[in-house]
Amino acid sequence: MTDEVWMGYLVHHAADYTVVQSPFVLDGARVFGADSDATTLAVAGLLHRLNHEAVTVVSVPDGVDGLSLSAATGVSLHDGGAEQEPDWEVLISDEAIVVVSRKNADVQIPMLDVEVEVDADFHAAIESAWEQELGAGHVSQGAYVSQAQYNEAAASRLKLHGQTNGDQIVWPPRFSHVVEGATTSGAALEHRGNVMTWTTLSAAGAPSEFSLRAPILGGVSTVLLALNDGPNGVFLVVDDEDTVLAMDAPMQLVFRRLYAQEGFVRYGLKARAIHD
Amino acid sequence: MRVRLVQEPYGHCGVNVDASLRRERVYEMLRLLGRCMVDVAVVGAGQTKYGNHPLGLKGMWAEAASKAFASIDGDFEPAAVEEAFIGSIAFGGSQLGNTAALLTEHSGMDGVSVRRVENACASSGFAFRDAWMAIKSGQADVVVAGGIEKMNDLTPERKRYWLGVSGDTEWERLAGLTFPGTYALMARRYFHEFDANHDDLVHVSVKNHFHGSFNADAHIQKQVSFEKAAGGFMVADPLTLYDCCPTSDGASCVVLAADHLAHKFTDTPVWVKGAGAASDNLALHDRPSITQLKATQTASAKAYKMAGIGARQIDLAEVHDCFTIAEVLATEDLGFAQRGEGGLFAREGNGRLNEGTTTVNSSGGLKSKGHPLGATGTGQVVEVFKQLRGQVESQRQVRDAETALTHNVGGSGATCSVHIFGRDR
Q1: Tag placement on chain A: N or C end, fewer CB within 10 Å?
Q2: Domains in chain B, start-ordered, CATH in brackets?
Q3: Per-domain boundaries in chain A
Q4: B121 an active-site residue?
Q5: Which tens digits make up the pLDDT trace of B105-156?
Q6: Min Cα separation B116/chain A (Å)
């Protein structure tokens, strides 16, 4: 068994399961960070598991976005039919704890001593903002990325799938380079890069899709990374850590919530400083 | 294939053509052939004051068009306009469809062939290009180009939505970027690559506010001190409020005419001597370099070549300084400064009125004159039209101005149009 910090979360690796816990605690209970939820923890857990063994099919409960999880990990979702019973399942709890488990494994949730106490007012404000953003009555003035558009680019956005064009790796993919009908081919980029430049937008200057949360967070930060495999990309910086940005600093990309619109969350990769 | 010359070019098919008709046809052919050599002039130009304008789209357009028509010295009727190109993002979405037809209805150009041109902040720079090409192609002799944007009648949240619609939505917008953020990324990288810092941007801001303080049509007619501009509210680190153009309402309109008609309208036409346009990757992260705009370099090279001159012959330039760093990059990309020395160019005051080879943004630029997105490109033409005719306020008149350049950029450099103008044909 091993415990480690993985993509900003606490991970406990056992023979038949992986437990992912948020480091944040409020009144003795684990709570999600500002841009995390059960899906982001599940993705981190599954990616961690994939470092140790192959997982081909997984089942997910309500509360986990299966399509985004599948796009981010490459693991197929169980379609619900009896013909193909999944070996693995995602389990969620009332707290910010998610388990990726072999089916019917005897899971023990470890008590980890890493705890970051969160400010109750901050936590309540962020939770309220997400709730409002996700509400059916909330018509965001934010940039419109439809479900279809989101799905079309999911592999390149969530798993950094690119294209090879001769010796060159192209990311995000171009339709002019479509290979045998697929927009991606054979190039999954490493989730790491170095800061080429960065900015922090004030809450007043942040895009309107962040208008509910930016004032609480004190603005939003964006980095342009030179990815280790060649292409460049712009990414938000994770909301749930204090990050000191610097030119050329190495960063990793982790799966987080971006924003919500019309009742569904758009997930993406965000940059976090490499310090674990 | 062999060509056989015939004595009777119009009669050899058995058609009986009389001599006068033959002559007319020859003239027509020569006229069409000569079209590729036709020169195009700006014969009238006008704009609203930029800022928080009390009127809506129709009223603002009517005002700009009527000022443009009134600036024409000779006989002119709006009905003479054969084609009209109106640039606009249609900010706010109140009139996204058929914008141009609605506007021309309010400016006496009923029935004119008209369309909206959209290329983000370069919309009317491209509208002007389209108007110029319409005359060059021989399809029209009198054409209107203009632009318009109404931006200040929206809630702050709706405004912030529209301010970011011209980036790559799926990648840049989801990464939290609107244009202050995009240009902030460029600025920080520029400081990293070259001997430059935020003080250089402050010099741009102070200069453009100085020029704009004398411009009655400017949104912000106030000078600012170096200290005040340096200490502005941080919008997108490292860009402060004084690095960002204001959100402006406004409309602009210019009238172009073919050479054989230009002197019918005015004794002092302003000639279009060069035109160039280009595009680049929409998203910043797809470009090999983010400290230069390839579209500007390509567009200006074409325009200079057509005009047969270089950057040193430009007396005044209206460049697209939506953010101060944009002017620094533009001075390099347009050839006024060497690569990496745009900051130095600003620091040494080279763009100030009548102080260097080229006065940059005598109008105050987008920074001070204002930036009603779709109106900006033709608004720049209004400025050079007046400058080259000696018709601006005396405090900001460029001395002995013979040649001018306009530079209009869409987004963070995905589109760009450059035009060169002269008092002489």
Answers
A1: N
A2: 40-153+246-422 (3.40.47.10)
A3: 2-118, 147-162+189-273
A4: yes
A5: 999 999 999 999 999 999 999 999 999 999 999 999 999 999 999 999 998 8
A6: 23
